[in-house]
Specification:
alpha+beta, binds adenosine-5'-diphosphate, five-stranded antiparallel β-sheet, 474 residues, disordered C terminus, 56% helix, Helix Hairpins, Beta-Lactamase, 13 strands, 4 domains
């Protein structure tokens, strides 16, 4: 500002000097005031030129260069330029922050939608778009009520009570592939709304499975309980002779056994679900386990023969001499269940072949093949569901709980194994458990390890005894 005053004063001084000088030539005029006015006018013209240079610069889109360089107008230009640069930096920063924020919302596994006061879509992430079948670009500023026509959603929106969430079918929901959404609106700002949606299909299915499971267990326990209660009442009220009493007591024992087996299978399942998967420290000797399985199979066939005249032909083949890493009791339980099913569902004179061999890729394959009734293709995918039975009456007659294959599936999963089922109706079935090579230890490898490490106490302690220790899964 001082420079401006000095420059202006300088101009006036120059004007006054010019007046003095002109006075000598034109004494008839008073030239000093004229010089002063002239100097002031020149200063105003120069200043206006610089002001308009500043205005021209200010009006330009790109204000990085140009504009007055010195004086007050130069300083103006400089300050405005700095101010604009700072504003630009701040805008960029807030835009970056907004982008980060939107990317975070975009990455959310839940649907997020911003609605304005008129319930028009201001923004939505891809998940929300997929949940409601919207196009995040095309449907912007469309009223949500016009796009999502589910009656439940329409009335939820109209009721304006957003305290609770709404459960509604997703856009891609079909009877064979139901999709369930949990949707809730939250008010914010000036009449705006935040719409959150969550895919709860898995949760819904788990809840339905839990309900079915409780209903199934209750049903399975109620049947033998009712029979038992009936016999107890008969024994209490009727005067029976000794042979009739013995007959009733035997039937009661049968029902009690059935309940015991059911509870034992339920406990096995719950243990399998609630414990950490077995590591590689414990191992079972495969040949010893096969011997144990053979004894159990013959015993079961014999019991069934006593009850219903079965006389199965068995073939056991153990083409692997080594160890399988895993929980011995679980492995015995899974393979025992497969063999027990073969025995129970294969009619008399049927053939049951149990084999174990190592594939060229290192996997160990246990197979149980029978010449039983076979299973129709439509049942195969559901066999490992709890309480799923193809032949309900045969299962019950032979003491089945409907949980055997569910246990096999869990044991397989915990050991990284695959359960494969091949079956032809009228011809028979082959159930195979395929264990990964990482769990297979051939005897040769053990001998090598023994030489190198010099200590194999765990391996030598566990297998032979464990293989025959626990054939009861419970
Ligand atoms: P269950 O205790 O009823 O045998 P599982 O879970 O072991 O229950 O088997 C489920 C169903 O699969 C059985 O009810 C039976 O209908 C069918 N199934 C299992 N194994 C065989 C088999 N080897 N041959 C024919 N059907 C079988």
């Amino acid at each position: 500002m001082l420079g401006r005053v000095i420059f202006f004063s300088g101009c006036l001084a120059a004007g006054a000097l010019l007046g003095f000088w002109l006075d000598e030539y034109w004494p008839e005029y008073d030239a000093v005031p004229i010089g002063l006015v002239l100097a002031a006018a020149i200063w105003i013209v120069l200043d206006s030129a610089r002001a308009s240079q500043f205005l021209v610069w200010l009006r330009r889109d790109r204000m990085a260069d140009g504009g007055p360089k010195s004086g007050v107008w130069g300083e103006f230009t400089d300050r405005v330029r700095r101010m604009l640069r700072e504003r630009e930096r701040q805008t960029k920063e807030s835009q970056a922050r907004l982008q980060d924020f939107l990317s975070a919302l975009q990455a959310s596994p839940n649907g997020v939608m911003l609605l304005d006061g008129e319930a028009r879509i201001e923004w939505c992430n891809q998940t929300a778009a997929a949940h409601f079948g919207l196009d995040p670009q095309r449907d912007l500023m469309q009223t949500i009520g016009n796009l999502v026509r589910d009656p439940g959603f329409v009335s939820y929106l109209a009721a304006r009570n957003f305290e609770t969430s709404l459960t509604m079918p997703g856009r891609d929901s079909t009877p064979s592939h139901p999709v369930t959404l949990s949707v809730q609106l939250h008010r914010y700002g000036d009449g705006r709304k935040l719409l959150l949606s969550r895919d709860i299909t898995a949760l819904d299915q788990a809840e339905a499975m839990r309900r079915d499971f409780v209903a199934n267990v209750s049903h399975e326990i109620r049947t033998p309980l009712t029979v038992l209660a009936g016999f107890v009442e008969t024994l209490q009220t009727l005067n029976l002779d000794e042979s009739e009493r013995q007959q009733y007591l035997a039937l009661m024992a049968q029902q009690a056994d059935r309940m015991q087996t059911l509870v034992s299978d339920l406990l096995t399942l719950s243990k399998l679900e609630g414990s950490v998967p077995p590591g590689l420290e414990t191992r079972v000797a495969v040949p010893a386990m096969m011997r144990q399985l053979k004894n159990d199979a013959l015993a079961l066939s014999h019991v069934m023969g006593a009850a219903g005249d079965t006389d199965h032909q068995f073939a056991f083949e153990c083409a692997f001499d080594g160890y399988l890493a895993g929980a011995p009791s679980e492995l015995l339980s899974a393979l025992g269940n497969l063999i027990s099913n073969a025995v129970r569902y294969t009619p008399s004179d049927g053939r049951i072949s149990v084999s174990v061999r190592q594939r060229t890729d290192g996997c160990l394959v246990f197979s149980v093949a029978d010449t039983g009734p076979g299973i129709a293709a439509e049942h195969l995918g559901r066999l490992t569901e709890r309480f799923y039975r193809v032949d309900r009456s045969r299962s019950r007659e032979t003491g089945g709980t409907g949980l055997g294959l569910a246990i096999v599936k869990h044991v397989a999963q915990r050991h990284g194994a695959i359960l494969s089922i091949e079956s032809t109706v009228g011809k028979g079935s082959v159930f195979s458990l395929i264990f990964p090579g990482s769990r297979v230890v051939p005897t040769a490898a053990l001998a090598d390890a023994d030489t190198v490490a010099g200590s194999l106490s765990v391996l030598q302690d566990v297998p032979a005894s464990a293989a025959i220790a626990n054939s009861n899964p419970g």
